[in-house]
Write a structure and sequence with these properties.
The protein has about 475 residues and is α/β, with parallel strands linked by helices. The chain contains 16 helices and 13 strands. Strand 1 (about 5-10) and strand 2 (about 15) form a beta hairpin. The protein binds ligand F0G.
């Protein structure tokens, strides 16, 4: 067995693949795969603090990248094979105003702002890793299904490197213009399916298998290797001391799975004595994980989650013709492909799942905005969820919390403008049918005639 290989996530199965396999499913049981490392045969980082030394060598692109700076913790590629476009230059910002809104003490809430990535979302952390693997195996075409950010990221990586052709599958009318614009502008072949993300996800897997196209959705375990680095940067910003909670929006459940794997490996390597707890926040209109985990008690169960329970739930969605529906279009997903890995992550880190309504998400988003960072609706689910967990007393008053802001504000300006609109019809058209009743923190444009006195009067009144 090589020191790096792919291994089925279910301990009792034991299925493996070599590093260069691209089916991303277990040959024995059809389950999900991990990238597995035999740490006895690999150079082990002795201390997390050693990574800080890389800052001094930032003229080397591998040290500059916020992902590959930590490459000893994702050692599946030789350095000369790595493809980086400068991803992962993101920040952890203390957010006191948002803390107050969420019911926490100032100084206890931090926002990890992944909107600063080259394509404007956390996806670039994973894409650099998947892209690197695709290069290793010599792929010429790469595909994904997407609610918009994976496709934007893939399109950027393909156009920036010129190494592969991007093929992106999107649901019809389901993707925000900011994200669609990226796929089109960066030259991706954009295939619009008459269906939603869940339909597109099924199709892209069939097509990738049939045509031998490299798949970059988060079912690809190399994607998740890159996304582990989000947690490494959080820890680094907190001087290598774990917070009490990481709160993350849940869609296809790739992030939470990657975070759980990162913490599991740090624990095995003896690099992190205390792990944070994980909270996943679904949108209420796309709440499969919340329903299964919190309402029906589905658990990892030592690697054997109750498949009958899952099958019954999925059959119910289909017989009732339930479709995911939320303003947080990035997480409008009812069939998360990483469900078992997410269960494992929550088991490892004492996790919880909550749901947030579109009203709660947009109000939280407005507070994030006035707090200094701009995010898209899905990202604000993390803050809405943290607020809920504080109210419930699950997050205790003195605990330190990091909410992940997964995507940039400009990804989806439609929802933001509708929320702050002076025009009731604009509000109703975009948000009314989502059950959003009010723009609690609206910052409405002030309408004034084009007259100096009137303009001055308005400024005096409103400022
Ligand atoms: N936040 C944003 C901004 C996203 O784009 C996504 C997923 C998530 C959260 C959920 O993350 O899947 O790891 O649980 N977007 C995917 C896409 C599905 O196609 O862009 P997850």
């Amino acid at each position: 067995m090589d020191a790096v290989y792919q291994r089925c996530i279910h301990p009792a199965c034991g299925g493996t693949h070599a590093l260069d396999d691209t089916s991303f499913v277990c040959p024995r049981c059809g389950g999900l795969m991990d990238v597995a490392y035999d740490w006895e045969r690999l150079p082990r980082p002795r201390s997390l603090r050693d990574f800080e030394a890389k800052w001094a060598g930032r003229s080397n692109p591998l040290h500059f990248s916020g992902v590959w700076r930590f490459r000893e913790l994702l050692p599946f590629a030789e350095p000369d094979k790595v493809l980086t476009i400068g991803e992962g230059q993101t920040i952890l910002q203390r957010a006191d105003a948002v803390a107050t809104y969420a019911g926490m003490q100032p100084g206890n809430l931090f926002l990890q702002y992944e909107g600063l990535n080259p394509s404007g979302s956390f996806k670039d952390n994973g894409m650099t890793a998947a892209f690197t693997h695709a290069r290793i195996i010599g792929a010429r075409r790469a595909a994904c299904a997407s609610t918009g950010n994976t496709s934007a990221s893939l399109a950027v990586f393909c156009s920036a490197t010129g190494l592969m052709r991007a093929i992106v599958f999107i649901g019809s009318g389901k993707i925000s213009y900011g994200k669609l614009a990226q796929a089109l502008d960066h030259g991706a072949l954009t295939v619009q399916i008459a269906g939603d993300f869940d339909d597109a996800m099924q199709r892209v897997q069939q097509v990738a298998r049939k045509l031998g196209i490299y798949l970059v959705n988060s079912i690809n375990p190399f994607r998740l290797e890159g996304q582990k680095s989000i947690m490494l940067r959080v820890l680094e910003a907190l001087r290598w001391e774990a917070p009490d909670w990481i709160v993350v929006p849940g869609g296809n459940l790739g992030n939470v799975s990657a975070f759980g794997k990162a913490f599991g490996e740090l624990a095995v390597l003896g690099l992190l004595p205390r792990l944070p707890r994980l909270a996943v926040i679904n949108a209420a209109g796309a709440n499969t994980f919340y329903q299964l985990y919190e309402k029906q008690g589905l658990r990892w169960n030592g690697g054997s989650p109750d498949q009958t329970l899952i099958a019954r739930y999925v059959a119910g969605l289909s017989s009732d013709k339930v479709r995911a529906a939320t303003i947080a279009s990035a997480i409008e997903i009812n069939h998360p492909v990483n469900l078992p890995k997410a269960l494992r992550a929550l088991e490892r880190c004492g996790g919880v799942v909550r749901e947030a309504s579109d009203q709660e998400i947009l109000d939280a988003k407005a507070k994030v905005g006035t707090g200094g960072l701009g995010c898209e609706p899905a990202s604000a689910a993390s803050v809405a969820g943290a607020r809920k967990l504080c109210k419930e007393g699950v997050i205790a008053p003195g605990e330190r919390v990091v909410c992940i802001l997964t995507g940039h504000q400009l990804k989806d300006p439609t929802a933001t403008v509708a929320y702050h609109s002076t025009d009731q019809k604009t509000f109703d058209d975009v948000l009314g049918h989502r059950g959003v009743r009010r723009a609690t923190f609206a910052n409405r444009a002030v309408q004034v005639p084009n007259e100096l006195d009137e303009i001055i009067k308005a400024i005096e009144v409103y400022s």
